[in-house]
Amino acid sequence: MTDPGELFDLAGQVAIVTGSTRGLGRAIAEGFSRAGASVVVTSRKQDGCDAVAAEISKATGRDVIGLACHVGDWEAIPGVVEQIVKACGHIDILVNNAGINPTLQSVSTVELDLWRKIFSVNVEGTLRMSQCVAPVMRDGGGGSIVNIGSMEGYAATPISVAYGASKAALRHLTVSMANEWAPWGIRVNILSPGPFATEMITAFEAQQPGTMALLAEGPSQKRVADVSEIVGPALYLASKASSFVTGDDITVSGGMRK
């Protein structure tokens, strides 16, 4: 029987975490680094990527690369993946965490430009990044893709319709990826977080005071989670511990119901 400690060991693996200069992505990137992976930190701005990569490397003693990547730019993604392969030789793990929800929106008021902007990052960016990484994983013997969804993909709030719709679409896309790429040895799963104390949530609190307290009422635990609490579930899906898990959706929501 495999030592349980070995199941979660990412030593020798290369992991890309998109949108990882803050929030859930930042926590996942450092968590994977502490588990032994060589991590690629990506976000839109190179200086931010460099700063966070240096912070994580200092904290963990691991190799960490910072590389700017705007996942809403379909044409730019292949070149970024090529740079990573050139620098690292292989890619074993991809966490599609980058996502946006820039402002409150309802069905009655959401504008087309905002709708398309949210979908271009939350859905199309995940699709394109995965399309480019999957052949690299295949040629390396397989890998794990973890998409970061949201409980709003099950029950969108009246003030976040485009975001919720994008996360619902991401669930469907995850299953399609899992089915198509299983013969390549690639597992694809989705994590659906409930309320976490990210910069996105604090921004909404500033726009609409009381948002944080309202969100805390949703989970059975009656609280908003710390970003560090996403690391364990993400590590499970990225590692050998979940070797027979694909096409699945794991909620990290403190007891919220789908």
Automatic annotation (TrEMBL):
Coiled coil, from the record: none
SUPFAM superfamilies: NAD(P)-binding Rossmann-fold domains (SSF51735)
InterPro entries: NAD(P)-bd_dom_sf, Sc_DH/Rdtase_CS, SDR_fam
Secretion signal, residue range per the UniProt entry: none
PROSITE patterns per UniProt: ADH_SHORT
Pfam families xrefs: adh_short_C2
Family named by the database record: Belongs to the short-chain dehydrogenases/reductases (SDR) family.
Matches recorded under NCBIfam families: PRK07231.1 (NF005559)
PANTHER family: DEHYDROGENASE/REDUCTASE (SDR FAMILY) MEMBER 4, DEHYDROGENASE_REDUCTASE 4
The name this protein goes by in its record: SDR family oxidoreductase
Originating species: Mycolicibacterium gadium (Mycobacterium gadium)
